[in-house]
TrEMBL record:
It comes from Rhodopseudomonas palustris (strain ATCC BAA-98 / CGA009). GO terms for biological process: ethylene biosynthetic process. This is 2-oxoglutarate-dependent ethylene/succinate-forming enzyme. Belongs to the iron/ascorbate-dependent oxidoreductase family. It catalyses: L-arginine + 2-oxoglutarate + O2 = guanidine + L-glutamate 5-semialdehyde + succinate + CO2; 2-oxoglutarate + O2 + 2 H(+) = ethene + 3 CO2 + H2O. SUPFAM superfamilies: Clavaminate synthase-like.
Amino acid sequence: MTASPSQLPVLDLSRFRSDTAERAEFLRDVRDAAFGPGFFYLVGHGISDRLIRDVLFASRNFFALPEADKLDIEMINSPHFRGYTRAGREFTRGQPDWREQLDVGAEREAFPLSRSAPPWTRLQGPNQWPDALPELKPLLLRYQQEVTELAIKVLRVFAAALGQAEDVFEPIYVPSPNQLIKIIRYPGRAADESDQGVGTHKDSGFVTILLQDTVAGLQVETADGWIDAPPLPGSFVVNIGEILELASNGALRANVHRVVSPPPDTDRLSVAFFLGARLDATVPVLTLPPELADYARGVTQDPQNPLFRDVGRNYLKGRLRSHPDVAERHHADLLDEYAIKPGLAAAY
Ligand SMILES: O=C(O)CCC(=O)C(=O)O
Ligand SMILES: [Fe+2]
């Protein structure tokens, strides 16, 4: 295995398609990573350096736009939780995150508004794009397509590692998986301020494929405490989301992670891609082969973060809690059901 800058393993995806012995060994390494920290670096992923460079460059250009251009496409305009969020306006466990970001989902038409439609239908709809940077839309949509294909390959790897057919998850994501790209900038902060870039959380989808620029800050909680996951050039960080934890009855764990703010006068850039299931799907529980059944530890119970098997409901819960200003403006009828504290965004 390649040397890692962290205690997290580095896995080479090209081993998945190699001869049977190599593939079997690869799947053992995947299980070790997945049953352990739940995070690893992925190389041999097939996404070109050129595309990665272009996406990071365009992301920097977006954050460098005049503030008015970014505020023109603020998320508060979008009932579908798309667009720009300024630092301090997103919340994790009720505390503000110090990062600015642009959320871009699948470019699909909104469902017609209807009181009788399930609330998750409100998540689907168009993105908001900056007029001042017209190249961003085609570039991020191309990246979204390529990274979706990669995430689906990774999902097939996890299925095989659990002794299942590679396509076992297809019934819950074909033909419209939930896709979300977040381009993110973490401004530096002084030592006497909070260091919450993004607070401790789990990701809600199947898998997350994270591209980091050059500055460290991501940390993962493991059985041995917090470990750093600094950038490894040419790699993505892969982590497991709540859908895989639910489907594997805890054999795969959606591990808790966070980002600490970089030092003052620096910043950190990352591009996270979250692959989820169809919003109308329900997550099944897989039957694991006898040799893996002991790893099924059950799903983590966290009273502050109940997990729902209804994909749309679980995802909507996360979006409403992270963006209470959008929740209050567009989804006031859902605040009680999802335990959203009114006034949270206004208090900061
Ligand atoms: O920026 C990062 O490194 C991680 C971001 C993250 O964990 C998230 O947005 O869910
Ligand atoms: Fe995350």
